[in-house]
Amino acid sequence: MKKRxxxxxxxxxxxxxLPGFGQFLNGNLIKGLTFVFLEFLVNVNSNLNLNxxxxxxxxxxxxxxxxNYQWALFYPCLYIFAMFDAYMDALKLAEQxxxxxxxxxxxxxxxxxxxxxxxxxxxxxxxxxxxxxxxxTAMIIGFIIGGWIxxxxxxxxxxxx
Length: 161
Prior knowledge:
Helix content is 74%, strand content 0%. The protein is mainly α. The longest helix has 26 residues, at 133-158.
């Protein structure tokens, strides 16, 4: 039976579903197990699932109260690095060149979502937006800003003055 080929974007989407899945599909079992283990470790120690449960139920104060922010601060960088790593490996396996400055959106998303975690326990923010969604919103904003920065850098690098 022929091994199924995956597209890099498909690998990226599986990595969004759970850190480590993209690595499994790329054939990197040790890396995949490491990311799954780290995701489980950080998730359990930060009480992330309880935070999500309370956030979806509108119990924002409880969501903040159950969260261990010392552990939660690790999650955004772990999550986004697993996505980036799986995507870059998929590009190599597909024998595609990685786009110029492709790491910029991932780095800004990790930075912004970590800042989102820091501010997700302040009452002024979580009264309007569930604590779970503050880092997610910040991550999306980080990807957008990083995409603009990347586009600007690519434009500067490839246009002659």
